[in-house]
Amino acid sequence: MSNPEQQPGSAKYAFRASAAVGVIAFLLVLIMHVLGIWGLIYGMGNGDSPPPPVMTVPPPPFIPPPKIEVPPPPKPPMRHVARTPPKQPVAPPTQTAKAPPADTPPNDSPDTTAGTSPLNNVRPVYPPEMEEDNIEGRVTIVCDVEITGMTSNCRVQSVTGGQAFAQSALDYVSKARYRPASRNGVPVREVNKTYVIRFRLDD
Known about the structure:
The chain is α+β, with helices and mostly antiparallel strands.
């Protein structure tokens, strides 16, 4: 049988031995961790394997923008002016238009025109008020002369001296009888016969 007094001492020894073993194991593990970390830091940095290449993407080539060509504005069309030589002036034919008599075909003028002096010796009457004031006058009248020598459609064309002379001249030609116009010896009517009546103080 073992001595009971030796049991506490042996237990203490065993406890100390196990504690020392645990401490040593812990230190070994710690040292291994430190060596591992150191190896990772310095071993990987000093290795012979080159670092992986960095892929660089080259920039796309520069493509100039296309040139937009603007067409020039169209030139105005050339106008060709044809120069024609001036034409020689042609004198228009001179024609004397005469009013045909109402009773005769157009452009059939009488052989002789109506007379200008009355056949019945009628004289114009001088307006008394114009005679008192010593005023003279002149009246132009246009009438148609019928085949009987009487006047018709008389109208005043112009008057000088006053309207009293115009009225006296109209009364005069309405009473006068003239020689009618004739064609081939036959009396015909003549239109637009002009009569000039002068009023003078010395007559």
